[in-house]
Amino acid sequence: MNTTLIKPFLRTVFSPETTPFISAGFEYDSKEIATHGVQKHQAIDFDVPRGTTVYAPADGYYVATFGEVLLEDQADIPTLVSVQKARAGNPYSDELRPPAKNGEWPIWFGGLFIQGWHKNGMYTQYGHLDWVDVSIPYYPPSAHKTNLMYSEVLKIDPREYKKPEISVFLKAGTPIGRTGMTGMGWGPRSFDFAALKRDERPDFSTAQYTHYTSPHLHFAVFGPRDSNGEPTKYYDPFGVYGTLNDAYPKNLSDWKKSKNSLWK
Ligand SMILES: [Zn+2]
Fold first, then answer.
1. What was the pLDDT predicted at 225?
2. Which of 147, 18, 29, 31 is nearest to 89 (CA)?
3. For tag attachment on the chain, is the N or C end more exposed, with fewer CB atoms within 10 Å?
4. Enclosing domain of residue 114
């Protein structure tokens, strides 16, 4: 059972004027499994317009980094998307794409991410952002061929993250970033369309890049990392542990109502 003994500790990540739609629940449905090649989402996707402000839902220590890797199958062969399918995914960004090789493009996965460390060993992550607040330290990715790997700061020893030279402490309710669709495109990497700011942080707020038509915030909650730096347990903040077709609340005001909700 995926029940939780963690006390509710999250305030909303959006302003009361925002009406997010949960477009992917904690579990992937069959269509999403086929797209992503993995069985579990272990996060919640909130569809919101690009540029929607994201707020820290809990007091914590925050950092940001970027990653973007080629989507590959288990034999490390890049998964390609046909011109036809890509256009169905987003018909609006043809001019951004280089000519397709054999009518196909590579697919990228990742994006601009924030991670927060909170009380009781809890972590949060915020993905596919367009912009991260300048108060949050940014850690550039490391390059492996064309892949950009997230900074290892995400896996830092829990005794280290509170150091002011590593992270910034923010109170719940502080704006931390703006939503986008980075790391969810094809053809060229989204990273190559970014304006690079101070400390090399990418800013996508005015950038056009290839992406699917559903900008969203990927929001993950997990418990302490193990000795390999992998999360020991992921939590559905709503306590539903279902696909998008299950009983996820539609209204922001209902987020705290489900039995094992982590929303305060
Ligand atoms: Zn997601």
1. 94
2. 31
3. N
4. 21-254
Q: Is residue 10 part of a domain?
A: no
pLDDT digits 0-9 by tens, 219-233: 999 999 999 999 999
Instruction: List, in sequence order, every residue forming a beta bridge with 178; answer none if it has no partner.
Output: 53, 131
Cα 42 to ligand 1 centre (Å): 8
Task: Find, among 181, 168, 89, 162, the residue nearest to 136 by Cα.
Answer: 168
Classify residue 138: in a domain, yes or no: yes
The rounded Å distance from CA 45 to ligand 1 centre is 5
Is the pLDDT at 3 greater than 60, yes or no?
no
What is the 134 CA–ligand 1 centroid distance (Å)? Answer: 24
Tell how far the Cα of 46 is from the centroid of ligand 1, in angstroms: 8
CATH of the domain at 176: 2.70.70.10
Q: Please indicate, yes or no, if residue 260 is contained in any of the structural domains.
A: no
Asked whether residue 11 is assigned to any structural domain, the reply reads: no
Cβ neighbors of 11 (< 8 A, separation 6 or more) are 55, 57, 58, 172, 173, 263, 264
Q: SS3 for 51?
A: coil
Number of domains in the chain: 1
73 alpha carbon to ligand 1 midpoint, in Å? 19
Phi then psi for residue 110, to 5 deg, are 145, -125
pTM: 0.92
| β-strands 168-170, 60-70 pairing | antiparallel
